[in-house]
Specification:
- Two copies of one chain form a homodimer.
- Chain A is mainly alpha-helical.
- The first copy, chain A, folds into two domains: 38 residues, no CATH class; 115 residues, Replication modulator SeqA, C-terminal DNA-binding domain.
- Chain A has ten helices and four strands.
- Chain A has a three-stranded antiparallel β-sheet with strand order 2-4-3.
- In chain A, helix 6 crosses helix 7 and helix 6 runs parallel beside helix 9.
- Chain A starts with a strand and ends with a helix.
- Chains A and B meet through strand 1, helix 1, helix 2, helix 4 and helix 6 of A and strand 1, helix 1 and helix 2 of B.
- The first copy, chain A, binds a DNA duplex (22 and 22 nucleotides) through helix 9.
Chain lengths: 167, 167
DNA sequence: GAACTGATCGGGGGGATTATTT
DNA sequence: CCAAATAATCCCCCCGATCAGT
């Protein structure tokens, strides 16, 4: 369990969304945020099935993700989730990833711009990183797969992400 | 400030939605939940002011709206809100609105297409209506203002919408 | 000629396709 | 010289300012 601080008003709003007596904050929030119970709660009642990467399952099914119809938006969202999942591992994966000339990820726009002729760097929201964006879909997928793999994320999870990638 | 307990997984998910460094939990949650800061807290400190059109205030400050950077997206969102606020009044306002040749709103794409040479009709999400989209920003504003006015919505509210229109 | 309305066309983003390198 | 991998040109489409027409 984690503890977060929120303002009084927001607290009242959330409390007001209680569906049954004794419902806990996580349950209410999950309902409001439209994310599934792929984690703890489910394990309690169903066959215990390990879910090592709840964060990605949540993202993949969230409206934040599915509402985005362009490849580039989903690409950024995914990279952001990967960073937040484990900044240290992400950093390692990020620095070691590049093409023959272009740097794919960096902490500043400039080094991406200068590593190629038209890399079109994009900021990765909520992250100190930037990515190249002037690539086709196949390469964007490769970048995601490559990072996930370097971060030690399971093949199964990588496949799920891959499948969810196309709109 | 209030403290709530949430499970680890949910915590990670929320943290992953951070938009800028140092953003606090309340801010992230408000964005995700689409609620603005204009509720109780504010009313407590300011003069209590009646809000006749909560629907619009909510929309204007929601992330759904502010995340949309293009005029056309905001335009559609607003029209959708107007329809849902009062379908009957919207219907009246919609049918009476047009230019010298073009029909601005209709229940079918075709009648908009045939009323001009390149009207580029767009569906109004969650609504049986379509709008013309091949117009400049000024005209889009005019369409919104005109409909709101016809629906009997206050000048004050119209001004608020107008102000929130540009990204 | 002033004001209003229509719709052409330029700008920019996205990413498939093509050019280039390995 | 061919195949695979990588870069980046360039086309398409969306948006909406600007200009043409009423």
């Amino acid at each position: 369990m984690k503890t977060i601080e929120i303002d009084e008003e927001l607290y009242q709003f959330i409390a007001g969304q209680t569906k049954h007596i004794g419902e806990d904050a996580s349950s209410i929030l999950r309902r409001l945020l439209n994310i599934n119970q792929s984690g703890l709660a489910k394990q309690r009642t169903s066959v215990k099935k390990e879910n090592h990467y709840p964060l990605f399952n949540d993202l993949l099914t969230s409206s934040t993700f599915t509402n985005e119809k362009s490849i580039i938006s989903r690409f950024i969202l995914l990279l952001s989730a990967l960073y937040n999942y484990n900044p240290a591992l992400f950093a390692i994966a990020a620095t070691s990833l590049h093409g023959s000339k272009r740097q794919y990820l960096a902490k500043d726009k400039l080094s991406l711009e200068t590593s190629g002729k038209n890399t079109k760097p994009r900021e990765i929201t909520g992250t100190p990183y930037w990515v190249i964006s002037n690539t086709n879909t196949a390469r964007k997928m490769y970048i995601i797969e490559s990072i996930m793999s370097d971060m030690g994320i399971s093949e199964t999870m990588i496949n799920q992400v891959t499948n969810a990638f196309l709109p």
